[in-house]
Amino acid sequence: MIDRRALLGGIAALAATRTVSAQTTGQAPRVGYVTSAGRNVNVEAFDQGLRDLGYEIGRNVVVEYRFAEGREDRVPAFVAELLRLKIDVLLASNPHAIRASRQARTTVPTVGIDLETDPVAAGWVKSLARPGGNLTGFFLDIPELSGKQLQFLAEAIPRLQRVAVLWDAHVSSTQLKATEAAARTLKFHLQPLPVRRPEDFAGAFEQARQQQAQALVILSSPLMFESMKGLGALAVQHRLPAISVFPQFAAAGGLMGYGPNLSDLFRRAAGYVDRILKGAAAADLPIQRPAEFRLAINLGTAKALGLALPQSLILRADQVVGA
To answer: What are the distances in angstroms from CA 156 to CA 13, 37, 306?
Structure first.
């Protein structure tokens, strides 16, 4: 015999894992959060940003989370589902989520966080200062970052000439072009290694070895963020000094990470959500750039690779691990 109370209780518990809305009055604003990744530290940073602004999730704001767990093909369905729930604001936490929201042709105000796309060139906004539609948010200044990453590698590796670049063919073409331009300026030979899924990594690293790459740049994408630990291990295994746009990459075993403080971006995104809930138009909220960049270095990895990093580089690091 089926225990009806137990069945109903199980359904209620399942619903609670998708929506933080217990004891809400029905009048609380509803925020949709969609990402092709899973629940991670960025989600916690966004939630903390809301709490810092006086929100109590589940009491005076409802947050509907949708995590695709690496399956970006699921994101459009999640966006459609959130729109059916009549959300007041959408937080689209990476390019897959933003792209899905644009394809849905929604008018719901959307705050995006994207390290891979030029929003003006993509036709998503009219200008950085006045987006002009329903999308605003935080986007990376890609050309400047690419040049800095190559410069850090040049400081770390004497007589550097051949650099491989691992890039996500789904979202990172703009970054690749910027990195190619920076490499030409520095007179580096650049070897692009396109990947689309984790299963492509091993073959890409083997190509880098065959082409005698001296170093590796790992471009930004949700795939790369979720795969940091594995990429760090592969880089050491193939004796490739590697730098990623994610500072956390050094702690994951890579040589260096240089890029924006993602937690800060997600806390600031909560501020934009707050302003929209209080009546601001996304069209009038300027696209912002990351305000804080961090350099992290793993000295243990440097030692394993036989690199004696210059003290001038180590002293500029915001974080040193593996000492």
So the answer is: 52, 32, 11
Say yes or no: do domains 24-140+262-284 and 142-260+293-321 share a fold.
Answer: yes
The verdict on domain 142-260+293-321 having CATH code 3.40.50.300 is: no
The answer to whether 241 and 307 have CB atoms below 8 angstroms apart is yes
CB 95 within 8 A of CB 121: no
CA dihedral angle for residue 85, residue 90, residue 95, residue 97, rounded to 10 degrees: -10
Q: What pLDDT, on the 0 to 100 scale, is given for residue 26?
A: 55
Closest CA to 243 of 186, 319, 165: 165
* pTM for the predicted model, two decimal places: 0.83
Q: Which CATH number fits domain 24-140+262-284: 3.30.70.1050, 3.40.50.2300, 3.40.50.11540, 3.40.50.300?
A: 3.40.50.2300
Residues 6+ apart with CB under 8 A from 174: 116, 117, 118, 121, 142
> Per residue in 75-106, is it b (16+ CB within 10 Å) or e — as a string?
bbebbeebbeeebbbbbbbbbbbbbbbbebeb
As to burial, measured by CB atoms within 10 angstroms (0-12 exposed, 13-18 middle, 19+ buried), residue 146 is buried
Residue 80 has pLDDT above 70, yes or no: yes
- Which 3 state secondary structure label does DSSP give 1? coil
308: left (phi over 0), alpha (psi -120 to 50) or beta: beta
pLDDT at 16 exceeding the cut of 50: no
Q: Is 110 helix (H, G, I), strand (E, B) or coil?
A: strand
Q: Is the dihedral of CA 311, 317, 318, 323 positive or negative?
A: negative
Phi and psi of 147, rounded to 5°? -65, -40
Mean pLDDT calculated for residue range 227-256: 94
